[in-house]
Give the backbone structure.
Amino acid sequence: MTFNQKQQLDTSKDYIVPIRKNNLKTVKDILPIANPDFDGSFSEHLLLYGKNGNRIYLLGLGEDKHDAKLEEAFRKLCVDTQKNWDKSIQIYANDLNDQQIRKAIIGLQLAQYEIGEYKSTKAKAFTSAVSICTSANIDAVLNEGELIGQTINRIKALVDAPPNIKTPEFLAKWSDDSAKSANYKCTVLDEKELESQGFKAVLAVGKGSVNKPVVIFNEYKGRTDKDVDLVLVGKGITFDSGGLSIKPSTNLHYMKSDMGGAAVVLGIIELIAKLHLNVNVTGIVCSAENAVDAASYRPGDVIESYSGKTIEIIDTDAEGRLVMSDGLSYAVKNIKPKYLIDIATLTGSVVRTLGYSAAGMFTHNKEMAQTFSEIGYKVNERVWPLPLFEDFESDLHSDIADIRNFSGKPIAGAINAAKFLEAFTDNHENWMHLDIAGVSFGDSPYAKMKSSSGYGIQLFLEFIKTLESK
């Protein structure tokens, strides 16, 4: 699908008319009938025919409150009707602002995602050209919307990929190829280099798999100075069996999605590089496969970490926080960024707390929390604050090591995981942890099984733009 701009709508050809609820009068001059049975409710659509037999799709935008998720309306319209589209289609956009146009483009791009990449028979690619019809200057909006949609589709493909293909080495190769095409720096540490540099926790988690762990560093520098505005640390567990604390078999096949945080980090670095933003951002992906083998680390083991702290292993299924601890420690010791954020599909506890509607947000920085909350509502990738009270620190006490990786209690699991990570941040004043287990992967009207949502790309892009403005 390609996008371009036209100054005028050609009413003799196919076009889409986005309409606010109960606001038909604003577009009456371009409709073939005066009073169609359509009120503009969110995501509803109605097909009319013009004098030349051309198709006219009325698309409901709903009310102002629906602006944050307009891409859903355009995506659904496209999925439902694009089989009937000709080689080109127009969108009447004189009544749309830049944000709405951007959302429209993202939605149309999302409709092109093909989840059946590994089927023997592939779906036919959709190749229509989309003309945005408006007299406003929207060159930047067109470019950004198209790149955002493409990036979301790329990370969805990563998360949905099967674990026999999507190994840590696969993520490293994906990242290296991306760096070459988008012009940023990618460095991959293999098992030998992880050993020499002291990534002990990453190595411990990966010991039980034939697919060896890696740590990926992606560095985008939009400025010439060396100061790093933001480090993003992503959990890249390409398959999580639970290790020796093995998970039940029900839904175990979905544990291919346990690298959702890593996918966001990989995607956002690629996106900001393509957009040439005036920021310096580093992404760190700590990737391993948590498998079961004679060499697997055990409950009761004490392992070392990059920070120098020792960790008592209570549960090998609390592995994500282990690999993340090494990434966080590396960032605070060696990069010293202004902002430090980790993102991970970390706990089932956050799903039980917030369901599938918001990510769990943990930070002591009220300004960061407010910024992320506002952005989350703006782009429909919501976050919700959860506490980091000192009360929870005793849950991670160990008699034989500096800290243990799991409290063993049936309560406050997401908080305990966040408190564990906090211990490896050296009290960084601008640190945030996002637990995206409930929003990264789940049910969708566009797939019969659970699949990736693409959550996080729009959230982080808007946050990084705030850093650029500073």
In short: The chain has a mean pLDDT of 97.
